[in-house]
Amino acid sequence: MNVYFPLALAIGVPIAIIMALRINATLVFLSLCLGNLLVQFVGNDANSVVSLASKAGAHSTNQTYVKLGLLLLPVVLTAVFMIKSVRGPKLLWNILPAIGFSLVFALLLVPLLPAGEAATLTRSAPWGQFVRAQTLIVGASTLICLLFLWMQRPHGGKEKSHKGKH
Protein backbone atom coordinates (compact mmCIF):
# COMPACT_ATOMS: atom_id res chain seq x y z
CA MET A 1 0.00 0.00 0.00
CA ASN A 2 1.22 3.49 -0.82
CA VAL A 3 2.42 5.18 2.39
CA TYR A 4 1.26 8.58 1.14
CA PHE A 5 -2.39 7.52 0.87
CA PRO A 6 -3.32 7.39 4.60
CA LEU A 7 -1.61 10.73 5.24
CA ALA A 8 -3.28 12.33 2.22
CA LEU A 9 -6.61 10.93 3.38
CA ALA A 10 -6.15 12.29 6.92
CA ILE A 11 -5.43 15.73 5.47
CA GLY A 12 -7.76 15.82 2.46
CA VAL A 13 -10.99 14.48 3.92
CA PRO A 14 -11.33 17.13 6.67
CA ILE A 15 -10.66 19.90 4.15
CA ALA A 16 -13.33 18.53 1.83
CA ILE A 17 -15.87 18.21 4.67
CA ILE A 18 -15.20 21.71 6.00
CA MET A 19 -15.50 23.30 2.59
CA ALA A 20 -18.51 21.28 1.41
CA LEU A 21 -20.49 21.97 4.60
CA ARG A 22 -19.27 25.60 4.78
CA ILE A 23 -17.99 25.14 8.33
CA ASN A 24 -15.94 27.88 9.97
CA ALA A 25 -12.49 26.25 9.91
CA THR A 26 -11.01 28.69 12.42
CA LEU A 27 -13.45 27.61 15.11
CA VAL A 28 -12.87 23.95 14.26
CA PHE A 29 -9.11 24.56 14.62
CA LEU A 30 -9.66 26.11 18.05
CA SER A 31 -11.82 23.12 18.99
CA LEU A 32 -8.98 20.82 17.95
CA CYS A 33 -6.68 22.74 20.29
CA LEU A 34 -9.22 22.29 23.08
CA GLY A 35 -9.45 18.58 22.30
CA ASN A 36 -5.68 18.31 22.55
CA LEU A 37 -5.82 19.98 25.97
CA LEU A 38 -8.44 17.43 27.03
CA VAL A 39 -6.19 14.58 25.86
CA GLN A 40 -3.23 15.97 27.79
CA PHE A 41 -4.92 16.95 31.02
CA VAL A 42 -8.05 14.78 31.26
CA GLY A 43 -7.04 11.73 29.22
CA ASN A 44 -5.51 9.61 31.99
CA ASP A 45 -8.33 10.29 34.45
CA ALA A 46 -11.00 9.65 31.82
CA ASN A 47 -9.23 6.43 30.89
CA SER A 48 -9.24 5.31 34.54
CA VAL A 49 -13.00 5.86 34.73
CA VAL A 50 -13.60 3.95 31.50
CA SER A 51 -11.28 1.12 32.61
CA LEU A 52 -13.23 0.69 35.85
CA ALA A 53 -16.45 0.35 33.90
CA SER A 54 -15.10 -2.10 31.32
CA LYS A 55 -13.25 -5.39 31.18
CA ALA A 56 -9.85 -5.40 32.85
CA GLY A 57 -7.97 -6.77 29.82
CA ALA A 58 -8.81 -3.94 27.42
CA HIS A 59 -6.81 -1.16 29.11
CA SER A 60 -4.58 -0.12 26.18
CA THR A 61 -7.47 -0.30 23.71
CA ASN A 62 -9.64 1.79 26.01
CA GLN A 63 -6.88 4.36 26.41
CA THR A 64 -6.56 4.71 22.64
CA TYR A 65 -10.27 5.22 22.11
CA VAL A 66 -10.74 7.49 25.13
CA LYS A 67 -7.98 9.79 23.92
CA LEU A 68 -9.30 9.74 20.35
CA GLY A 69 -12.75 10.59 21.68
CA LEU A 70 -11.41 13.47 23.77
CA LEU A 71 -9.55 14.86 20.77
CA LEU A 72 -12.47 14.49 18.37
CA LEU A 73 -15.48 15.38 20.53
CA PRO A 74 -14.96 19.19 20.54
CA VAL A 75 -14.11 19.11 16.81
CA VAL A 76 -17.20 17.13 15.83
CA LEU A 77 -19.54 19.17 18.02
CA THR A 78 -18.18 22.46 16.70
CA ALA A 79 -18.39 21.23 13.13
CA VAL A 80 -22.02 20.19 13.60
CA PHE A 81 -23.00 23.49 15.20
CA MET A 82 -21.10 25.55 12.62
CA ILE A 83 -22.50 23.97 9.43
CA LYS A 84 -23.27 26.71 6.88
CA SER A 85 -21.64 29.36 9.07
CA VAL A 86 -19.40 30.65 6.27
CA ARG A 87 -21.06 32.52 3.41
CA GLY A 88 -20.13 34.54 0.39
CA PRO A 89 -16.56 35.39 -0.48
CA LYS A 90 -15.37 34.28 2.96
CA LEU A 91 -15.95 30.68 1.85
CA LEU A 92 -13.06 30.82 -0.60
CA TRP A 93 -10.72 32.19 2.08
CA ASN A 94 -11.90 29.53 4.54
CA ILE A 95 -9.66 27.07 2.67
CA LEU A 96 -6.55 28.47 4.40
CA PRO A 97 -7.63 27.72 7.99
CA ALA A 98 -9.17 24.45 6.74
CA ILE A 99 -5.75 23.38 5.45
CA GLY A 100 -4.13 24.47 8.70
CA PHE A 101 -6.68 22.53 10.72
CA SER A 102 -6.19 19.39 8.63
CA LEU A 103 -2.41 19.47 8.87
CA VAL A 104 -2.44 19.94 12.65
CA PHE A 105 -5.24 17.37 12.95
CA ALA A 106 -3.02 14.77 11.24
CA LEU A 107 -0.11 15.63 13.54
CA LEU A 108 -2.28 15.09 16.61
CA LEU A 109 -4.33 12.14 15.33
CA VAL A 110 -1.68 9.72 14.11
CA PRO A 111 0.13 9.27 17.46
CA LEU A 112 -3.23 8.48 19.11
CA LEU A 113 -4.15 5.72 16.63
CA PRO A 114 -3.93 2.07 17.71
CA ALA A 115 -0.31 0.88 17.83
CA GLY A 116 -0.32 -1.07 14.55
CA GLU A 117 -1.80 1.70 12.43
CA ALA A 118 0.32 4.39 14.08
CA ALA A 119 3.52 2.38 13.62
CA THR A 120 2.87 1.86 9.93
CA LEU A 121 2.47 5.58 9.38
CA THR A 122 5.13 6.90 11.76
CA ARG A 123 7.86 4.67 10.30
CA SER A 124 7.28 5.97 6.78
CA ALA A 125 9.45 8.58 5.09
CA PRO A 126 6.51 10.94 4.37
CA TRP A 127 5.58 11.00 8.07
CA GLY A 128 9.18 11.79 8.98
CA GLN A 129 9.16 14.75 6.60
CA PHE A 130 5.78 15.83 7.91
CA VAL A 131 6.96 15.75 11.53
CA ARG A 132 10.11 17.68 10.66
CA ALA A 133 7.85 20.45 9.36
CA GLN A 134 5.57 20.43 12.41
CA THR A 135 6.89 23.69 13.86
CA LEU A 136 6.16 25.48 10.60
CA ILE A 137 2.78 23.73 10.26
CA VAL A 138 1.60 24.57 13.78
CA GLY A 139 3.00 28.11 13.74
CA ALA A 140 1.58 29.04 10.34
CA SER A 141 -1.77 27.38 11.04
CA THR A 142 -2.10 29.20 14.35
CA LEU A 143 -1.23 32.56 12.79
CA ILE A 144 -3.68 32.04 9.90
CA CYS A 145 -6.49 30.99 12.23
CA LEU A 146 -5.88 33.93 14.57
CA LEU A 147 -5.92 36.37 11.65
CA PHE A 148 -9.17 34.87 10.36
CA LEU A 149 -10.68 34.97 13.85
CA TRP A 150 -9.77 38.63 14.23
CA MET A 151 -11.16 39.43 10.76
CA GLN A 152 -14.55 38.01 11.80
CA ARG A 153 -15.02 40.80 14.31
CA PRO A 154 -18.00 43.04 13.52
CA HIS A 155 -16.87 46.27 11.87
CA GLY A 156 -18.19 49.54 13.30
CA GLY A 157 -21.49 50.64 11.81
CA LYS A 158 -21.79 48.00 9.08
CA GLU A 159 -23.65 45.46 11.16
CA LYS A 160 -25.74 47.80 13.31
CA SER A 161 -29.46 47.25 13.25
CA HIS A 162 -31.51 49.87 11.47
CA LYS A 163 -34.83 48.93 13.03
CA GLY A 164 -37.10 51.86 13.56
CA LYS A 165 -35.24 54.08 11.11
CA HIS A 166 -37.18 54.68 7.91
Let me know the largest β-sheet: none
Catalogue the unreliable spans.
Answer: none
Return the structural class.
Answer: mainly alpha
Helix content: over 70%
Notable traits:
single chain; mainly alpha; 166 residues; 8 helices; globular
Can you offer a commentary on this structure?
Helices cover 73% and strands 0% of the residues. The chain is mainly α and 166 residues long. It has one domain (4-151). Helix 2 (25-53) packs across helix 8 (134-151) and helix 5 crosses helix 8. The longest helix has 29 residues, at 25-53.
Task: Break the fold down into its secondary structure elements and pairings.
Elements lengths: L3 H17 L4 H29 L5 H23 L8 H4 L1 H15 L5 H8 L2 H8 L1 H18 L15
Gist of the model:
73% of the residues lie in helices and 0% in strands. With 166 residues, the chain is mostly helical.
